[in-house]
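Protein modeling request. Please complete all fields; requests missing the sequence field cannot be processed.
Requester role: graduate student
Desired output: 3D structure, token encoding
Chains: 1
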Amino acid sequence: MGAVAWWPRGTPDAAEPLPVSTGSVTSSPSPTTDPTPSRTGPVTVASPTPSASPAPLPTPVGRYSPPPSPSATPATTQPAAGTGVAGQQCATPASSFVPTRYTIERLGVHERVIAMPTTGSGQVPSPPKNDRRSAGWWSDGPRPGAGKGKAVMTIHTYRPSLRPALGNELYRGGRSALRPGDIIKLHGSGGQVACYRFTEAPKIWVRDYDPSSRLMVDPNGAPSLVIVICWDFNGRTGDWDSRVMFQFEQV
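Delivered output (251 residues):
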């Protein structure tokens, strides 16, 4: 499969992850996104809102199908009274689950996760453009606790003239606010928790991105997580020239 065309241009205020080729993935457009007609090609990553964030880069992944949901809901451990979701301890999930919240305790981050399918124009989605702190989780990719594959989340970055989004905070001054060893927790509605340890945050220039890379899309590798934000806003073109891909390994 050849390289995928970049996602359609969003508004000058927005940034989004790069287009990601996922073979023959199809799904209905998310009600919270504004899919715009894309150039021909497999899967790309969707754009955010008038003041929003970036999208992941194109990466062929063949005919990936997400694992079927478990037929029975396994017993889960609820957080102890008074501890709240953020106080949940890391544990190996009994089965895969849909994340609804995420926590980065050292940075004081505790926000919601929005499960979003591949858009009708074949893009990995990002959160609504005016949502500064929520993460969009690609629901057609690997789930937390699945035992293999890289879960993909996107968070908005806003252009310099706007109030910062969480993506701006995570890479303030062009340096990762996350330190190696920092833990992010993904929480499910049934009390599940999956923990991931931060390892690195490579910045990839759009022009240099290798579509065969597994930096963003990797359905069959070790269980892991990537959070993608846009960076290097280009005021002349209204585009974001790079993506930062925060890499995490499952604890």
